[in-house]
Design brief:
The chain is mainly α. Helices cover 78% and strands 0% of the residues.
């Protein structure tokens, strides 16, 4: 139970970071990140994700957030930057699906 609380706490921090870093409008990217973070949280609660899988997925979300911050650093998210971030999100989305549906679980 303590491990589950830690996982949920980590995911909560990621959600807070996502919300905080939205100085420029990137609503589609923000929505996708929130949705992915909620899917990871649900996987932790249901036991579909192991600790190692959760750590890796959270690290991947932090990477996407970092890419987004870099894109916003100059005040303008270009089409190319947005395309790159969306690609990173699609990869993360695929990884979340694969990890949640593999034969491993926490139990």
């Amino acid at each position: 139970i303590n491990t589950m609380k830690k996982g949920i706490l980590i995911i909560g921090f990621c959600l807070a970071a996502i919300s905080f870093a939205n100085a420029q409008n990137t609503p589609g990217i923000r929505h996708t990140q929130k949705h992915q973070t909620m899917r990871i949280s649900q996987g932790v609660k249901s036991g579909e994700l192991t600790r190692q899988e959760t750590r890796r997925l959270v690290r991947e979300q932090k990477h996407v957030q970092h890419e987004k911050r870099l894109a916003k650093a100059d005040g303008k998210v270009t089409r190319r930057e947005r395309k790159h971030i969306r690609h990173e999100q699609r990869v993360a989305n695929r990884d979340i699906y694969r990890q949640k549906h593999d034969k491993q679980d926490r139990n």
